[in-house]
Each structure stands twice: as structure tokens, then as C-alpha cells.
Amino acid sequence: MNIPNTEFERYYQQVRARQKRDTFSWSLLLLVLYFAAGSAAEFNLFTIWHSLPNFFDYMFETLPTLHLSDLFADSHTKGSFAYWGYRLPIQLPLIWETLQLALASTLVAVVIATLLGFLAANNAWSPPPLRFAIRVLVAFLRTMPELAWAVIFVMAFGIGAIPGFLALMLHTIGSLTKLFYEAVESAQDKPVRGLMACGASPLQRVRFALWPQVKPIFSPTALCAWRSTSAPQPFLDWWAQAGSARS
């Protein structure tokens, strides 16, 4: 009885030694690659630590300096709300335009991505060539950054809100479609089989078996997409205005 145990122990030690050797080798390789990449990117921990107080200084300087006695004074009095937000008449309409463009592009993208998501899912009974074509298309859409799409559409439509809208919409369609068809594929198939046994059509199976399962996933994903489209939109607006001023 001791001989098999001894052979197993020897085999176990060999496996453990090989695992430790592989772990050490891969860790050393990753460490070398990390320092090589840091050197190429001029990454320096000492510089970050030395410059870290500047970050907090910037955050502190962005806070308004308000005085209780002058809160409601005019825009020429330091310490008042009006002095701190003297550009609000200019900024607020631009912020509103940004939110409108982000919301409009997200709404259109959600509708299109929902249809494409069901067509691209493996369990939604669409033809395999169509599923493959949709997946390749949305992979291309989400690979292209918003700024690249904006450059293309500016050449076609000129400076304005339309290039930003189309750029955000296409990129969002690519990202949401992938998330949506993965959610559809993760849905349980028992309700689907039950409706198939009752003679339901593919559209009815999607409507009454798949959609109730994926709707709680689609809604928060769409809200996250709206937040994501709101982030690059100010940069696209600034870029469009800069191009307009230069021209």
C-alpha cells in the first residue's frame, strides 16, 4: 500500500514543481514586459508621487470661493454665485444640447440594437449567414472610435450636430448589440420549448418567452449606454466648434 502512495507523491511533487516553475517564468516575463512598457511610456512612480499634490491643488481650485455675505451679489463681486457662474448663460444651453444629442443617439441605437440583438442570437431562429453578417458588422461598428466616425461624417455632412449624433449612434449600436445578443443567448429555453409545443411562431416565442427574460437586462444596459454617450459628446461638440471657428 505504501508503493502506490509513494508513486503518487512523487508524481504530485513533479506536477507542483512544474507549476511553480511555470508560474515563476510567466511572472518574470510579465514583470519584464511591464517595466519595458513603462520605460517606453516614460512611466515613473517617483514622478507620480512627486506630482500627486498638484492633482489635489487642481481639485481644490475648481471649487468656488463663496462668501456668505456676498452670495447673492452681482457677477462682479467675488464670493457670489453670479461671479462663480458668470458663463452659465453660455454653458447651460451647450450642456442642454449635449444631453439632447446623447439621449437622441442612445434612443435610436437602443431600438436598432434590440432588433439586431435578437437577429444575431443563436437561439432566435435567424439564418446563420444573417447572424454572422450582423456580428461582423457590429464588431466593426464598436471597433471604430467615436472620433473616427465623426471625422468621416464631417467630411460628408460638414460641421454641426449631425456628425456627432451619427458617430455616437453607430458606436453605441455596435456595443449594445453585442451585449443584447449575449443576454438573449443566456435566457432559459424552457419557456421557448413550451411555446414550441403549443405551436407558437418564432415571433411569438421571442415576444412571450425571450423578451420577458431579457427586458430587465436591456433596460439598465440602455441607461449605461446613455451615460457612456454623454461622456464623449462634449469633446465632439468642442471639436466641431473648433473646426467651425478655424474654417
Automatic annotation (TrEMBL):
Membrane topology: Multi-pass membrane protein
Highest taxon in the source lineage: Bacteria
UniProt xrefs under PROSITE patterns: ABC_TM1 (PS50928)
An example Gene Ontology biological process: transmembrane transport
Main location: membrane
GO cellular component, as recorded: plasma membrane
Pfam assignment, any one: BPD_transp_1
Residue span(s) of domain ABC transmembrane type-1: 95-247
Subcellular location(s) per record: Cell inner membrane; Cell membrane
CDD domains: TM_PBP2 (cd06261)
Sorted UniProt keywords: Cell inner membrane, Cell membrane, Membrane, Transmembrane, Transmembrane helix, Transport
Membrane-spanning ranges: 26-49, 94-121, 147-170
Family under the similarity heading: Belongs to the binding-protein-dependent transport system permease family.
Protein name, as recorded: Phosphonate ABC transporter permease protein phnE2 (TC 3.A.1.9.1)
UniProt source species: Raoultella terrigena (Klebsiella terrigena)
Phylogenetic classification of the source organism: Bacteria, Pseudomonadati, Pseudomonadota, Gammaproteobacteria, Enterobacterales
Gene name linked to the record: phnE_2
